[in-house]
Amino acid sequence: MGRIVRAELYRPNGRPIVGIGSFDNPSEFPDGNRYGNESGAYNFVAEAAEVEVDPATGAVTVLELAAVVDCGTVLNPPLAEGQVEGAIAQGLGMALTERFDWRDGAPTRPNFSDYKLPTAGVMPQLHVEFADSYEPTGPFGAKGVGEIALDPVPSIIASAVADAVGVRVHELPITAEKIYWGMRDEDSVRTTSDTGEEGDGR
User: In this protein, which residues make up the domain named Aldehyde oxidase/xanthine dehydrogenase second molybdopterin binding (predicted)?
Assistant: First the structure.
């Protein structure tokens, strides 16, 4: 094959040989009852985070985050790692700073000075690895990798915060204010339990 390509490319007035192909994963779209299988090959991820919470303010700092992704055969390791890191960055924004609010049909934070996206300065130390697997229905054994690492980030940060200070935030973003008042509520519950007196609450 290589000899044929070189012969065509390097002969007088030669042109490159271009091949076009397509791949359609076996999938079954949902029926009227929303039962189906939209993907022929599912990817998976396991993640863990270490956070630091300031007890005086509730401010959260994500120190480290580890992700292990099963995306089948990794065809381009630097590109795949970049996809995972980018997804984690988006997950951090979703977890900690981004809140889409609107009024009268228009966003109240229409620019990036108000709608806070994560920047390089707030990114934690990242540890990215890939599980060794092969997807027989995928091209060259590969599966998707683009967004899977985003999904668990808010939940693992919420769990890490709960483990650190005992406050479980159920509504995103996980802000310092929510954690601060949650810690005060916890103190009030402890005070009421210990003394039999009613706590101050907020």
Answer: 11-124
Which of 50, 85, 98, 147 is flagged as catalytic? Answer: 147
Rounded CA gap, 30 and 48, in Å?
Answer: 33
Query: 163 to each of 102, 159, 160, how far by Cα in Å?
Result: 33, 6, 5
Q: Quick one: 75 exposed, middle or buried, by C-beta within 10 A (0-12, 13-18, 19+)? A: middle
pLDDT tens digits for 84-112?
A: 999 999 999 999 999 888 899 999 988 88
Helix (H, G, I), strand (E, B) or coil at 63: strand
pLDDT tens-digit map of 62-72: 999 999 999 99
Burial 162-191 (b: 16+ CB within 10 A, else e): eeebebebeebbbbeebbbebbbeeeeeee
Answer CATH for 41-195 from 3.30.540.10, 3.30.365.10, 3.90.79.10, 3.40.50.10490? 3.30.365.10
Does the annotation count 147 as an active-site position? yes
Yes or no: say if 189 and 195 are a contact pair by the CB < 8 Å rule.
Answer: no
Task: Kindly list the domain boundaries of the chain, sorted by start residue.
Answer: 41-195
157 contacts 95 by C-beta, under 8 angstroms? yes
